[in-house]
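Regression test attached.
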Amino acid sequence: MKTLFLGGLAARVAPRILAKMSETERLDTTVLAELTDMQRLIPALAEAEIVVGHIWRSDFPEAPRLKLLQAATAGIDMIDLPSLPRGITVCNVFGHEPAIAEYVLMTILALTHRLFETVTSFRGGSWAAHQPAGGSPHGEILGKTIGIVGYGRIGREVARRAVSFGCKVIAANRSPVADHGDASEIYLLGELDRMLPQCDVLLIAAGLGPETRGLIDPSRLSLMKPTALLINIGRAAIVDEEALFEALRDGRLGGAALDVWWQHWSPEHPDRRPSRFPFHELPNVLMTPHCSGFTEGTAERRWGDLAANLDRYVRGEPLGNVVMTT
Amino acid sequence: MKALFLGNVAADTAEGIRDELPAGLETVILGDPQELARSPHVAADADILVSNHWRPDYPPAPKVRLVQSVATGVDLFDLAALPPGAAVCNSFGHETAIAEYVIMTWLALHHRLFQISGEFRERSSWRTSWVESGAPHGEVRGSTLGIVGYGRVGREVARRAAPFGVRILAANRTPRDPDPGVERVFPLAQLDAMLPECDTVALCTALGPETTGLIDARRLALMKPTAFLINIARGQVIDEDAVFAVLRDGGIGGAALDVWWQYPTAAEPSRRGSRHPFHELPNVIVTPHNSGWTRGMVRRRWDEIAENIRRFVAGGPLINVVTTI
């Protein structure tokens, strides 16, 4: 079976995935990191039955034999679905939920406890935050309400951990949710405006789609408490970039932890800033370069799951993590 | 009946619980303990002492029957200089805040939060990003957390850590049954058997003869070279020279230190917490003994202190009794 590992990410992890597979002798594998290398891309796609990658562009050449597009990521927003041939099964991968849930609790705690401010000042020699020195107390998350937008795998993992801290968890989801898990109330996405004013922390854990693009706009930001924290590990485009920057700058939001961004580095601009606005100048923003889920544990779980799915395809067994069939 | 509130923290407490104190209780507030020398009668008349310390050179306080600490540790009270028969009580309310700190720093050390967010903020380095990819960071899932001192704080830590999918061990001076999610509580004497198992060691003990110098060079060497050490107990539980050396030389993975071997004084208000430059080590999270210092803790603690004073005045049984002098 002709299998193409396509794009930088898939090319890099191909050896690790293949090492975890048991049916490799029935695969005929090609690795192509560079998506714009048409000389190699045209023949590779002409023959491939399986493509592993996270990008599919509308200008890709014909892929007449393609049956399985196995995304190497959880999000499939970089796959141009309309330009895929009919009858293709699209699968994704997970394994990042525990790591991201850890990131979410870590950043909620760090912002609430003012960790960075305290450490920076103490490294500089100041005891100002010390109690007998008259330092003002910081916050704690006990009793706080965490609202989760997108109550999927990550949201549930966050909820399970957050309730042990004495937090109340509420959530809003696109489709109705039968099993509430550790959340005490579930709203439909259309009822989000009723949820927002209750939240001490708003966690964006949704995928990017027509219902979520631009969801957190200026009017919704204004429904939030001025002390509330916003944590985004979903996709940047779910939140209005300018409105979030201004709310944080002007103190209409308490703080934010942002792992996903509106713009990314490129080979020409390896140190490109992640936004048109200087989030890095705001003291109440904790920023990371889209790495919340990128742990050794995630890699182990994810590439193991992906290898198992390719094994299932080779054996003709039902696939896991099916997103859709085109 | 008279109550003396001595020191900054006690003075704030007096303000905070003003409306909760029994009618008829006379309160004297001395924010600056130095003033005691000029007003020795304040000590002489006090039935209740609310403070975080008592020094041997203070004027006598022969009538004191309740020594109410505004902190959990009573190690700063010179009990020999206070009258025999007085009950010494401490106060809590900080357990949840400190447990949050332990979990926060435990996560931050594994996820390399300071390094990753620091270089992204300062110079927009994407090298730790997911798709672009450098080395992945760590996670706590699947790791082993060892809690030394399985008391109020230790248990709150365990309760929060359990849903993260970790193995939890504990060591305690007195035998204790493990709570759900905790695999085993070792006697403190068997600490050496626990340390090599741990990816993180969180020190949550009180300071006493059994715990002073507990984490010495030999025990640090029993820890994994990647292990993290978190101290929210007291500085003196760890050997200062030994821990600085192993952190500097990579003998363990990193540390979060909230408690110190020395503290600022009036003469030296910006005195460092150690004679070693821990603040220069990139793998050490340093905070100025404020892990439990939250608004929620202040309210919970004030409520406990007010409750105990009411009980004392009414002749009822006291709460949080540490010892009787």
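Expected vs. actual: identical. The two ends of chain A are 21 Å apart (CA to CA).
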